[in-house]
Amino acid sequence: MNKTMLIAASSLIVTGLFAAAIKAGSGSVEDEIAAFQGYFNKKFPEVALQDYKDGVNVLPQYAHRRANWEILMEFPPYELEMETAREEWATPFANGKTFAECFADKPPATQYPYYDAKSDDIRTVVGDINACLEANGEQPIKNLKNGKIARLVAAFKEQYNGEDMAIDVSSGGARKWYEKGKEFYWTKRGQLNFSCADCHVHSAGKNIRGDVLSAGLGHTTGFPVYRTKWAQAGKPWGTVHRRYQGCNKQVRAKPFAAQGPEYKALEFYEAVMNTGVPLLVPSQRQ
Amino acid sequence: MNRRIFLKGTALCATGFGLLKSVVAMALEWPKTLFELEDEAEAVKTLFGDTPISESADVAIKAPLQAENGAVVPIKVHTTLADAESISIMVEKNPSPFITTVNLRPGSSGGMYSARIKMGQTSNVTAYVKAGGKVHTASQEIKVTVGGCGG
Amino acid sequence: MAFVTKMKIKKGGDGHDVLCLVKHPMETGLRKDKKTGKVIPAHFIEVMAFQLNGTTVAEALLGQGVSMNPLIGINVIGAKSGDKITVSWNDNMGETGAAEATVK
Fold first, then answer.
1. pLDDT (0 to 100) of residue B146
2. Which of A146, C7, C60, C82 fits as disulfide partner to A237, beta carbons 3.0 to 4.6 Å?
3. For position A32, which CATH number holds?
4. C19, C22, C23: residue with CB nearest A74
5. pLDDT grade, residue C2 (50/70/90)?
């Protein structure tokens, strides 16, 4: 075997070992987080853990386009909507209560999504916003993908900008959901037969039809997202689950329901992998 | 009359910015013809007449080498030239290359103009700075790709 | 229809960079409504003026080539703490908007 083949083969083995380490299930969650983050640290040595809050913009392969995002960030387009978002968050319900009161005993945004033992379920910010509405005699929001729900999530989460993600996976129930999300992440799906990992781990930084694939590390820390592309169609905001649906459709896989068990598990897993990455909400993307 | 004041930058300078202010109050006529020209060279001639034009290192464009989305391309023009009177931005391959211009009150407004513009395809983008009786330019190609992962 | 107009002032160059962001469709008049098939009429900002303590220091002319939710930025020289900077604009349909901010 010549040197090139040796290197190629060994990197394949490393990737395979890495994938195996990730999927082990018998190891500790801390080990799996370390393996996941260590992989990206090796792949993009110039990118610090905290930088991953900026998504694809920090990847060296995105250098030609980074100025686009940097200049936009001097006065992000989403600022036109954040006043509305904060007003919507602060406006009392008919009974006089507010979202802030509902969330007073909830975890900080850096610990969302969280496992709720009583319902044996994953609670997301979207879910708790609607629960709050229902508990106070208001109609829950039906559109779970863009518009008002996304603005409300943004208004809640932005209060924790700069704080590091720290999801609690200590309980058996949480671990169960973590494993479900992990399985989803590493399972190939769709006609194109891609897993989340195929694009966002193995091919992070590579081109795909004129775009650059973002790293899986940091995913969800910037959501809800405000996208130029979606703004052209009049629906600039997107929740995590809106993006998951789009991604699944792009590999020609059946999209799952927003706030359904599959995407809640996936969001939970991704949030755990982001341990130590700070929140930056909302995020401006193309 | 409004159009003549706009097109002849020297008149603007000579009569003072105060005239423009009162013109604004009278609802400045928006130069429709200029915005509808389909050729950059024609737009340049309409705007600057016979004023000498040349590339200058004193004009800089800050813009991405590749746009994320042609609908919103952020352009920043900087110039170190004193007393810049106007800064204009044109996109060679757009159906109407003349995109925008800013008239500056020399001494009160520094040499900077920032705008988010639409680009239909990969094209040269040129900044034209009128100062000291001349037009100074800088150009940069900005790539615009279509398609990609979208969701 | 409310056209949110926001401003940002920060130190830049020899003075202050003043950025103005407006929620405005900047319609070219070349698009068709997908549902009705009818052309969406052109609707875009034409003039945006920047004033320092009531005196115009810069005036921008915009057209359909400027992006939706446009940002226009200029640099103001000689603004002191407490000075007022205003931005006002009008579009081709006679709509107007304005914003004011005080230099820190």
1. 74
2. A146
3. 1.10.760.10
4. C19
5. confident
pLDDT of B18 strictly over 60: no
Judge whether A199 counts as a catalytic residue.
no
Domain count, chain A: 1
H helix runs in A136-260, sequence order = 148-157, 172-186, 196-197, 228-232, 240-250
CB of A259 closer than 8 Å to CB of A121: no
Closest CB from B73, B109, B117 relative to C57: B109
**pLDDT, block means (10 residues), chain A with 286 residues:** 52 56 71 97 97 97 94 96 97 98 98 97 98 98 98 98 97 97 97 96 92 95 96 94 96 96 98 98 96
Check if B147 contacts A (Cβ < 8 Å): yes
Buried/exposed code over B68-106 (b: 16+ C-beta within 10 A; e: otherwise): bbbbbbbbbbbbebeebbbbbbbbbebebbbbbbbbbbb
Q: Give residue A242's domain range.
A: 28-286
Q: Is residue A172 part of a domain?
A: yes
Burial class (CB in 10 A: 0-12, 13-18, 19+), A55: buried
Complex ipTM value: 0.95
Any chain A CB within 8 A of the CB of B63? yes
pTM comes to 0.89
- Which member of A132, A196, A199, A247 is catalytic? A247
